[in-house]
């Protein structure tokens, strides 16, 4: 069964057509990365899948069921969203934040049960934030805070997790820790991961398949070696690019090329 199926979807916000006639399928258990320049519709696509936008939601299936047929609570039981920025209006502790992931599974006035507390503890252990359980979220570093938000998502026990630039503003070590965590979640719990990223190198390393968006349209979808082709990237991003495979391990390395070095590329 596919995790997500999109057929002929378009989204218009105001006078702007943000997505146009988009069709694609994401397999269950896949690590699927959405790339493209600013304004190409990446975040809009995530918000659409999370049912945060009503426009264009016709033509979307989540695990074989029309997105519009899910109630908010039903969708929250199978889908978790990790946004790019987390607002900290209230000083919740790490434990309290992670336990929020159990909300879709509780009654209106219900309190967490022993089983819910155990799931939160497992999620914190999985993301290596157990030692921070009593700390406030606003006292954590960016990498720690991001792991807590992922722990909250895991605590929902979702089948599908959506992430918008989860490694933005993190140093390389924390980027790898976060993405290794997502890969482990995919492998051990068969969770489907759909991630928006501006980092083409991380997309190449972790994505089973990539979706390249350009001006709200599907430009190409496929394995990284196919999508991250130099002439295609130059056309979509509008700059000179260098795409090389590491001679030792075959990893792709993608870099925009400053004007002073372009003669060496051409």
Automatic annotation (TrEMBL):
SUPFAM superfamilies: P-loop containing nucleoside triphosphate hydrolases (SSF52540). It comes from Candidatus Desulfatifera sulfidica. Gene3D superfamilies: P-loop containing nucleotide triphosphate hydrolases. CDD domains: ABC_Iron-Siderophores_B12_Hemin (cd03214). It holds the Pfam family ABC_tran. Keywords: ATP-binding, Nucleotide-binding, Translocase, Transport. GO terms for molecular function: ATP binding; ATP hydrolysis activity. NCBIfam families: PRK13548.1. Residues 4-240 form the ABC transporter domain. PROSITE patterns: ABC_TRANSPORTER_1, ABC_TRANSPORTER_2. It comes from the Bacteria. Part of the ABC transporter complex HmuTUV involved in hemin import. Responsible for energy coupling to the transport system. InterPro entries: AAA+_ATPase (IPR003593), ABC_transporter-like_ATP-bd (IPR003439), ABC_transporter-like_CS (IPR017871), P-loop_NTPase (IPR027417). This is Heme ABC transporter ATP-binding protein.
């Amino acid at each position: 069964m596919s995790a997500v199926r999109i057929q002929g979807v378009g989204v218009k916000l105001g006078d702007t057509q943000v997505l146009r006639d988009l069709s694609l399928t994401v397999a269950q258990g896949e690590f699927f990365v959405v790339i493209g320049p600013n304004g190409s519709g990446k975040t809009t696509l995530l918000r659409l899948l999370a049912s945060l936008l009503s426009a264009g939601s016709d033509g979307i299936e989540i695990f074989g069921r029309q997105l519009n047929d899910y109630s908010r609570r039903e969708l929250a039981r199978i889908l978790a969203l990790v946004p790019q920025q987390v607002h900290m209006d209230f000083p919740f502790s790490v434990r309290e934040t992670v336990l929020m992931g159990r909300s879709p599974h509780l009654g209106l006035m219900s309190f967490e049960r022993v089983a819910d507390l155990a799931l939160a503890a497992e999620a914190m252990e999985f993301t290596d934030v157990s030692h921070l359980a009593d700390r406030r979220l606003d006292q954590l570093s960016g990498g720690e805070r991001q792991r807590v938000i992922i722990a909250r998502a895991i605590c929902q026990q979702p089948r599908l997790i959506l992430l918008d630039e989860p490694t933005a503003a993190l140093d390389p070590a924390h980027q790898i820790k976060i993405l290794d965590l997502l890969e482990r979640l995919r492998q051990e719990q068969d969770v489907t991961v759909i991630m928006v990223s501006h980092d083409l190198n991380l997309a190449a390393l972790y994505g089973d398949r990539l979706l390249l968006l350009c001006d709200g349209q599907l430009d190409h979808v496929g394995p990284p070696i196919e999508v991250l082709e130099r002439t295609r990237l130059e056309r979509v991003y509008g700059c000179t690019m260098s795409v090389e495979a590491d001679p030792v391990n075959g990893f792709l390395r993608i870099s925009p090329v400053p004007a002073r070095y372009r003669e060496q590329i051409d």
